[in-house]
Design a protein that fits this description.
Blueprint lengths: L1 E5 L5 H10 L3 E5 L3 H9 L3 E2 L3 H6 L3 E4 L4 H9 L4 H4 L5 E4 L5 H12 L4 E4 L2 E2 L1 H6 L3 E6 L2 H14 E8 L3 H29 L4 H9 L6 H11 L9 H18 L4 H15 L10 H8 L23
The structure holds NADP nicotinamide-adenine-dinucleotide phosphate.
The site of NADP nicotinamide-adenine-dinucleotide phosphate (NAP) has 25 residues, from helix 4, strand 7 and helix 7.
Length: about 300
């Protein structure tokens, strides 16, 4: 297929390279020239705008940051809609709000362009290894047309429902992954402050009901103090903003996600926005007297007084 690809960052670059490996002919554009260099080296055609990408493509895939970016790429000046021939499919794989995805889909439909929302989970390793989980919203027949492209980038590919449904699934995913990162960071902080080896704790927990991919992968990165992104904290903050906006819209209580969203706010406010989400452990450490182990644990009762006074 002739495939356009816009958004060649941590995720988009390896995803596009996997499409090229799958034999598809790529047309790319990026704001910064260096973002598209690896794709040009792999034989992709470089374009001067998103409109030019769309002009020669059957499907345009978008992997940018947030809703305003998707809107700009799709509907802005020199955007996809300006260059598209009728029948083009615009598959947005970025994580944005479900309502924003639906709004963009409606406006593209008025220009004869079908849109799928197809956000992903699996992070940079999943993108590199073509092992992403892809959650798709949009019309079933459009999904079937694009499925061969998704299969070049992912393994678990699920058509969730109509327009916006893929983004709802991704918001659910971010509740689970965000709270799992917070849980692992809290557990490893407790181990460290108790003077116990966090690596041994992680090893033990991996064999029981506390096992999770987050404990395995993110837990190891926390212990190794490897904060290179990965998944930037400001992106995870954005995802929990989307979750909390949905909760507000629906009148829904999401107390755990709300607390986790505050942790991501604190990370960005502490200047950790460009670091990986696993840097949450630094904020927890700072909230509890730094990363040092506790010298002596109180014999009993913590800070409570023994005379019954409070
Ligand atoms: P990233 O490394 O920052 O890459 C984003 C790319 O989008 C950049 O290359 C940037 O282009 C381009 N871009 C942003 N805004 C644009 C605009 N208005 N017009 C044109 N290009 C624009 O981010 P990422 O980690 O790949 O994440 C991309 C999306 O995937 C996000 O929605 C994120 O939430 C989601 N996601 C990320 C992960 C992860 O682990 N990283 C996992 C699952 C989902 P330039 O290079 O030209 O500046």
């Amino acid at each position: 297929m002739q495939v356009g690809f816009i958004g060649l960052g941590i995720m988009g670059r390896p995803m596009a390279l996997n499409l090229a490996k799958g034999g598809h002919r790529l047309r790319v554009w990026s704001r910064r020239r260096e973002s598209m260099e690896p794709l040009l080296a792999a034989g992709a055609t470089g374009c001067a705008s998103a409109a030019e990408v769309a002009a020669g493509a059957e499907v345009v895939i978008c992997m940018v940051a947030d809703a305003p970016d998707v809107e700009q790429v799709a509907l802005g000046p020199a955007g996809v809609a300006e260059g598209a021939r009728p029948g083009l499919v615009f598959a947005d794989m970025s994580t944005i709000a479900p309502a924003a995805a639906q709004g963009i889909a409606v406006r593209l439909a008025q220009r004869g362009i079908d849109m799928l929302d197809a956000p992903v989970s699996g992070g940079e390793p999943g993108a590199i290894n073509a092992a992403l989980t892809i959650m798709v919203g949009g019309r079933a027949e459009v999904f079937e047309r694009v499925r061969p492209l998704f299969e070049c980038m992912g393994r678990a590919i699920t058509h969730i429902g109509g327009s916006g449904a893929g983004q709802v699934a991704k918001a659910c995913n971010q509740i689970v992954t965000g709270m799992a990162i917070a849980a692992v960071a809290e557990a490893l902080n407790l181990a460290r402050r108790s003077g116990v080896d966090g690596a041994r704790v992680r090893e033990a927990l991996l064999g029981g009901f506390a096992y999770s991919k987050t404990l395995e992968v993110h837990g190891r990165r926390m212990l190794e103090r490897d904060f290179q992104p990965g998944f930037k904290s400001w992106m995870h903050q954005k995802d929990l903003r989307i979750v909390m906006e949905e909760a507000h819209r629906l009148g829904l209580a999401l107390p755990g996600a709300a607390a986790t969203a505050q942790m991501f706010n604190a990370m960005v406010g502490s200047g950790l926005g460009e670091e990986d989400s696993v840097a949450m452990i630094k904020v927890l450490e700072a909230m509890s007297g730094g990363g040092r182990p506790h010298a002596a644990l109180p014999a009993s009762g913590g800070g409570r007084r023994s005379d019954g006074a409070t």
